[in-house]
């Protein structure tokens, strides 16, 4: 039976839970991780699949029906299809997505699809190996492309390509990415570079805004037509190409914050609830899970987390305080 929904003080209903399953990753994107000297969480500090399943069951009873599996890189977590199968069986869960860098996807796509994974978001910041290595500090673009096409072959119909837009690095990738997505019927979204890099080097001048990218695309393809917005809480503003061949979306957290309709919660790999990607406060679910707490205790922790959600992330405000934890530790 559905319990009280997760509604914050501004009336935002939270039905979307992002679940980080690991802080480890097999590449080193500078907008997310340091290049070396990383101290990952010990394995016994990460939530088990049983613990994650319990959290989702409690959340689903309170209206959460959409999940996204993240990391780190979630595909480095062993037996991930087993977790997907468990989550897909929970009453009320309607959609399970996964965000991945795609490097290991070719080997795991079939098992993930068979386990019940609904959708894939694959990071693809550019189509040149030079750009890939400049951002990831590793080789591997072809493996990512192989993963994308393997996912399509095994049955995934909803595949979205996410490109982080960085001034001085990815401008020349805009048009090739758009041609690639249009040719192969993939969704494409450009995401503004956010201040979540572990090396603390982010500056506003590095943000390649959605407005600039849109101008570049319209100069090449003609006017972009605003698309329908079936989900008002989605972070992206989508447009259709005028010739009817595909669409493109823009996630602009820096230049156009979308916090007013946010419906997302997060749990980190080691079991901390977060009500915002940029939150400086966490709620310890692992302590309850391993300390004998009841499902009602866990639900109350969720409600407390939601109740303390701020109106917005504040990137555009003078008093903005960057979270201490970078993206790979939070979960994308």
List keywords for this structure.
alpha/beta, TIM Barrel, 10 helices, 332 residues
Descriptive report:
By secondary structure, the chain is of the alpha/beta class. It is 30% helix and 17% strand. The chain has one domain (16-330): Aldolase class I (TIM Barrel), CATH 3.20.20.70. It is built from 10 helices and 12 strands. It has a 12-stranded mixed sheet. The model has no long low-confidence stretch (mean pLDDT 92).
CATH topology: TIM Barrel
State the order of secondary-structure elements, H for helix, E for strand: EHEHEHEHHEHEHEEEEEEHHH
Overall shape: it is globular
- The figure for the number of domains is 1
Tell me what the CATH architecture is. Answer: Alpha-Beta Barrel
Report strand order across the widest sheet. 7-8-9-6-5-4-3-2-1-10-11-12
Report the count of strand segments. 12
Topology diagram in text:
Elements: E1 16-20, H1 49-60, E2 66-70, H2 80-88, E3 95-100, H3 105-115, E4 119-123, H4 129-136, H5 141-154, E5 159-165, H6 174-184, E6 187-192, H7 210-221, E7 224-226, E8 237-241, E9 247-251, E10 264-267, E11 272-274, E12 283-284, H8 285-290, H9 295-307, H10 327-330
Parallel strand pairs: 1-2, 1-10, 2-3, 3-4, 4-5, 5-6, 6-9
Antiparallel strand pairs: 7-8, 8-9, 10-11, 11-12
Helix pairs in contact: 1-2, 1-9, 2-3, 3-5
Task: Report a brief summary of the structure.
This protein is of the alpha/beta class.
């Amino acid at each position: 039976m559905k319990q009280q929904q997760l509604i914050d003080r501004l009336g935002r209903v939270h039905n979307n839970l992002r679940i980080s399953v690991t802080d480890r990753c097999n590449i080193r994107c500078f907008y997310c991780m340091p290049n070396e000297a990383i101290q990952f969480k010990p394995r016994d500090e990460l939530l088990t699949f049983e613990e994650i399943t319990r959290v989702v069951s409690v959340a689903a009873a309170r209206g959460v029906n959409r999940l996204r599996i993240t990391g780190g890189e979630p595909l480095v977590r062993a037996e991930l299809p087993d977790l997907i199968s468990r989550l897909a069986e929970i009453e009320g869960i309607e959609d399970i997505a996964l965000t991945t860098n795609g490097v290991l996807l070719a080997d795991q796509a079939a098992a993930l699809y068979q386990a019940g994974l609904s959708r894939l978001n694959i990071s693809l910041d550019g189509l040149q190996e030079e750009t890939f290595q400049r951002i990831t500090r590793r080789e591997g673009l072809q493996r990512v492309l192989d993963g994308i096409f393997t996912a399509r072959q095994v049955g995934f119909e909803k595949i979205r390509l996410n490109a982080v837009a960085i001034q001085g690095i990815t401008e020349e990738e805009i048009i090739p990415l758009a041609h690639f997505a249009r040719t192969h019927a993939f969704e494409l979204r450009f995401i503004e570079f956010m201040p979540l890099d572990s090396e603390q080097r982010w500056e506003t001048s590095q943000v390649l805004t959605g407005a600039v990218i849109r101008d570049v695309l319209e100069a090449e393809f003609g006017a972009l037509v605003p698309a329908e917005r079936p989900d008002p809480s989605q972070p992206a503003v989508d447009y259709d190409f005028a010739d009817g061949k595909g669409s493109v979306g823009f996630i602009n957290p820096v230049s156009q914050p979308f916090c007013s309709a946010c419906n997302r919660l997060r749990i980190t790999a080691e079991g901390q609830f977060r009500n915002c990607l940029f939150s400086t406060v966490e709620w310890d679910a692992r302590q309850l899970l391993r300390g004998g707490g009841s499902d009602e205790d866990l639900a109350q922790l969720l409600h407390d987390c939601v109740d303390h959600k701020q109106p917005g992330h504040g990137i555009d405000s003078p008093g903005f305080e960057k979270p201490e934890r970078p993206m790979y530790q939070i979960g994308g």
